[in-house]
Amino acid sequence: QKVSVEVLDHLEHLALVDFRDSEGVERLQKAIQFADQLHEVNTDAVEPMDSVLEDRCLYLREDDVTEGNCTKDLLENAREKVEEYFVAPPGNIPLPKLEERDTFLQG
Amino acid sequence: AVLKDGLRSQVSAALKEGQVTPTELCQRCLALIKSTKFLNAYITVAEETALKQAEESEERYKRGQPLGILDGIPVAVKDNFNTAGIETTCASNMLKGYISPYNATVVQKLLDQGAVLLGKTNLDEFAMGSGSTDGVFGPVRNPWSYSKQHKEKSAPKSHSEDEESNWVITGGSSGGSAAAVSSFTCFAALGSDTGGSTRNPAAHCGVVGLKPTYGLISRHGLIPLVNSMDVPGILTRCVDDAAVLLGSLAGHDPKDSTTIQDDFKPFELPNLTDVSKLSIGIPKEYHAPGLSSEILALWSKAADLFKNAGAKVVEVSLPHTHYSIVCYHVLCTAEVASNMARFDGLEYGHRSDKKDSTESMYAATRREGFNDVVRGRILSGNYFLLKQNYEKYFVKAQKVRRLIANDFAKVFRSGVDILLTPTTLSDAVPYTEFIREDNRTRSAQDDILTQAANMAGLPAINVPTALSESGLPIGLQFIGRSFQEKQLLTVAKWFEKQVQFPMIQLEEVKRHDSGVLQHQKSASFS
Predict the structure, then answer these.
(1) Which residues pair with B208 in a beta bridge?
(2) A52/B457 touch (CB, cutoff 8 Å), yes or no
(3) Given pLDDT bands bounded at 50, 70 and 90, which one contains residue B441?
(4) Does Transferase appear among the keywords (chain A) (predicted)?
(5) Is residue B35 part of a domain?
(6) Which of B233, B317, B334, B382 is in Cβ range 3.0-4.6 Å of A15 for a Cys bridge?
(7) Of A37, A56, A89, the CB nearest to B323
(8) In which domain, by residue range, is B220 found?
(9) How far does A53 lie from chain B, in Å, by closest CA?
(10) B145 is annotated as an active-site residue
(11) A23: which chain B residues are within 8 Å (Cβ-Cβ)?
């Protein structure tokens, strides 16, 4: 059961990475096939497990400021910045639709 | 000779008595790193800072105030741990040039005890892989490829042709760390273990690889792959050294809320002489398809070893073993999809020049920064997390995870103390052979014996056991109860003593080490 182009396109949008070529798509197909083996296991009345430490209470600290003032350090690694801001290209512009994009999936 | 010594037993004493100085140790290790450059074990060598740390350590020894056993000891750290002021790349274009602004907690702990950080070791990109072959800095070569033991058993070819094309892999993803320890360039190295990434290369490189219980050692600063399974791993040349490292790293970290709050007391390992009270479990499902007959025989011999020494050895069953690799595949890709979302080019790392929109910049950045393996896992993970697939795959996998964890719990409840299994399906394969299959296939094959322990969060350790017919290391794995590292390591140490795994005989090491250590430790176990 092949994954439709619509779903592949949707995945590229969600993940913001590309399949790049037929090998990439094949990789996904194989991954799904592999994962399908899970359905052989009977999991009736089994609760999903989020963490092996589920029986313990995780540590929560007091909501006090204990560190910070590291703006300079944090900005060090950013390529584009202005004063104390990270600079991003304009937002709220969705990726072009499949037909208009330069993607392998076009083919 | 000192480079081959055990930490607690010999080096520490040598440093205290002034037989060798931290600076000498550091310089020797740095020189060895240079002469073993062809192994490609290190991505970054922090020569200046290491020498400075060594000098500071030397001052402390002169004053008679060393910080502890690790003071002055050269160590290496896998390049997915943040190290302040030192580039941290995860062997990816995405983080080339990224200089960490902070130390991972485990790195800080090592430094606080005076350890000398030699550099960052090579890995598969973002720790995804089982060969240490898929990073942007190229593959890591297994030092045993150049060992006398392996060369003797290799098919006669022209000497140089053999070495250049037929070297074997280290396993992965912490291959650089394993190779670094195996080739004597450091006394201990940090790796990470999500599906076997510390134990697998440990087995192939003939070193001890410890995966601690999930929640024992802080993950703060370890660039995450799978938050619910990742742990920092410890690679050393003997079990006692692993205990030393564990003692300095374990314990609650307020910066990692998934570390347990119980008090952790560092321990020294007793010299076990009486194993009659031990119950060793042999999980039959670990006789996996593809397990080499050599390793099967070794595993059997190990079981007999325990039996003959008076321990109770029983066959046990972990019925869902077959599904753990599938389960891991789904959970891993799902968590990866989430964890890799942070790499968008804005705050750190690679940034594309595309300026039309935020989304197109993110997409181009990630296109350019990630390799096929990483992109593949992100896409698979996103698929399994789609609304229409969430229950079917992700939640289903979480349920199977519980079944796997329950399998272990049941066996340990029945009176078994430790499980004994193989670590890998075979000895290390040549690189040219390894790359014939793609990363996902290889990982699925190679992780089979190691990753169930990550599923259940249990501690596990690889102990080098014997050499294969090709003169390459084979290791066996012990899996213990949660937070029972002392028992696990005690048994591992006993086993290590019984098998007397031979020391690697590397031409390069002989040339650089002025002390002549030539007593042959024969492989009495093979």
Answers:
(1) B236
(2) yes
(3) confident
(4) yes
(5) yes
(6) B382
(7) A37
(8) 2-152+168-324+397-499
(9) 8
(10) no
(11) 372
- pLDDT value at position B518? 27
Which of the four pLDDT bands, split at 50, 70 and 90, describes residue B161? low
What's the CA dihedral at B301, B173, B453, B463 to 10 degrees? 30
Give the residue from chain B lying closest to A85, CA to CA.
Answer: B347
3-state secondary structure of B464: strand
In a domain, B191, yes or no: yes
Q: Which among B469, B509, B461, B424 has a CA at the least distance from the CA of B146?
A: B509
**pLDDT at residue B107 is higher than 60:** yes
Retrieve residue B317's tokens.
């069953």
Lowest mean pLDDT among A45-54, B158-167, B379-388, B435-444: B158-167
Measured between beta carbons, the chain A residues lying within 8 angstroms of B372 are: 20, 23-24, 27
All structural domains of chain A with their residue ranges: 1-41
Closest CB to B440 among A12, A27, A47 = A27
Distance CA B199, CA B171 (A): 9
Q: Are B171 and B178 in contact (CB under 8 A)?
A: yes
Q: Which of B481, B492, B500, B33 is nearest to B241 (CA)?
A: B492
What is residue B513's predicted lDDT score, i.e. its pLDDT? 42
Pick from A51, A77, A88: which is nearest to B98 by CB? A77
Give me the half-sphere count of Cα atoms (radius 13 Å) on the Cβ side of residue B386: 20
B316 vs A61, which has greater pLDDT?
B316
Strand order in the sheet with B208-211: B42-45, B116-121, B74-78, B188-193, B231-236, B208-211, B460-467, B473-479, B418-422, B279-283, B312-316
For residue A37, the chain B residue with the least C-alpha distance is B326
* A85-94, B305-314, B508-517 — most confident range: B305-314
pLDDT band at B158 (very low <50, low <70, confident <90, very high): low
Whether B197 is a known active-site residue: answer: yes
Chain B environment of A27 (Cβ under 8 Å): 372, 376, 379-380, 438, 440
pLDDT, tens digit, 9 for 90 and up, residues A2-43 = 899 999 999 999 999 999 899 999 999 999 999 999 999 999
Cβ-nearest to A95 among B257, B360, B457: B360
List chain B residues with CB under 8 Å of A89.
354-358, 360-361
Task: State the CATH number of the domain containing residue B208.
Answer: 3.90.1300.10
Show residues of chain A in contact with B357, CB under 8 Å: 89-91, 93-95
Instruction: Give me the mean pLDDT over the B74-93 stretch.
Output: 97
Q: Is the minimum CB–CB distance between A78 and chain B shorter than 8 Å?
A: yes
Interface test with A, best of B357, B368, B440 (most A CBs within 10 A): B357
Mean pLDDT of all residues in B504-508: 82
Residue B514 has pLDDT above 50, yes or no: no
Model confidence pLDDT, tens digit, residues B238-263: 999 999 999 999 999 999 999 999 99
Search chain A and give the residue with CA nearest B438: A27
The pLDDT, as a whole number, for residue B517 is: 28
Does residue B356 sit within a domain?
Answer: no
Determine whether B217 is exposed, middle or buried from the number of CB atoms within 10 Å of its CB (0-12, 13-18, 19+). Answer: buried
Q: Establish whether B354 is a catalytic residue.
A: no
Whether residue B360 is contained in a domain is answered as: no
